[in-house]
Write a structure and sequence with these properties.
The complex is a heterodimer of chains A (115) and B (113). Chain A has 115 residues and is mainly beta. Chain A contains no helices and eleven strands. In chain A, the strands form two sheets. In chain A, strands 2, 4, 5, 6, 9, 10 and 11 form a seven-stranded mixed β-sheet that branches. A four-stranded antiparallel β-sheet of chain A has the order 1-3-8-7, with no helix packed on it. Chain B has 113 residues and is mostly beta strands. Chain B is 0% helix and 50% strand. Chain B contains no helices and ten strands. In chain B, strands 1, 3, 4, 8, 9 and 10 form a six-stranded mixed β-sheet that branches. Classes of the chains: A mainly beta (115), B mainly beta (113).
Chain lengths: 115, 113
């Protein structure tokens, strides 16, 4: 069974631009979560999607948004990029997450650099 | 590879010794706790979890201890191997909050051959 895949793996953008990152969960997994990882702030929860609906949201500004498609694939978008958005963006999928917490499987991440 | 934390606390352990990594969690309402291992260039990998109705859980070479009174979690790795070298994160969640998981800052484990 293939793991969680994220594309692209590396991305360089300039301030003010926008970016879209993609995540394909493990087949059969319906929950997709996004995290931002930086040396200073560590791993921070962005949002979680289940059956195309955002169920949970972390404390990030509205510039960060996401969506989930009917095949459970998810995208996150960051608009008006700032230097501080440079980070490793991780996607994690789990089987259901409805009746409690299920084990999350992480992808390798997308390294975003904002110049 | 990726550098996931330039200022992480570091634990250096001799190969074959036992390692103990500690973590303090913040939310007394959390009822589910997880340990993750992150190697350079990879995403976090699940190691072991524990629910708040337990105080100890064992896996293969790993044991997690939970002390709810002082909101403390520890991960014990028996017979540490070079392949255990990585950054270890504890995480907490509330089962009512679905997948909203809060991660700790991480500890870098260095295994000395």
């Amino acid at each position: 069974k293939a793991g969680v895949t994220q594309t692209p793996r590396y991305l360089i953008k300039t301030r003010g631009q926008q970016v879209t990152l993609s995540c394909s969960p493990i087949s059969g997994h319906r929950s997709v979560s996004w995290y931002q990882q930086t040396p200073g702030q560590g791993l921070q929860f962005l949002f979680e999607y289940f059956s195309e609906t955002q169920r949970n949201k972390g404390n990030f500004p509205g510039r960060f948004s996401g969506r989930q498609f009917s095949n459970s694939r998810s995208e996150m978008n960051v608009s008006t990029l700032e230097l501080g958005d440079s980070a490793l963006y991780l996607c994690a999928s789990s089987l259901e997450g409805l009746a409690g917490i299920n084990e999350q499987f992480f992808g390798p991440g997308t390294r975003l650099t904002v110049l | 590879g990726e550098s996931v934390g330039l200022h992480l606390p570091t634990l250096s352990v001799q190969e074959g010794d036992n390692s103990i990594i500690n973590c303090a969690y913040s939310n007394s309402a959390s009822d589910y706790f997880i340990w993750y291992k992150q190697e350079s260039g990879k995403g976090p990998q699940f190691i072991i979890d524990i629910r708040s109705n337990m105080d100890k859980r064992q896996g293969q070479r790993v044991t997690v201890l939970l002390n709810k009174t002082v909101k403390h979690l520890s991960l014990q790795i028996a017979a540490t191997q070079p392949g255990d070298s990585a950054v270890y994160f504890c995480a907490e969640a509330n089962s009512g909050g679905y997948q909203k998981v809060t991660f700790g800052t991480g500890t870098k484990l260095q295994v000395i051959p």
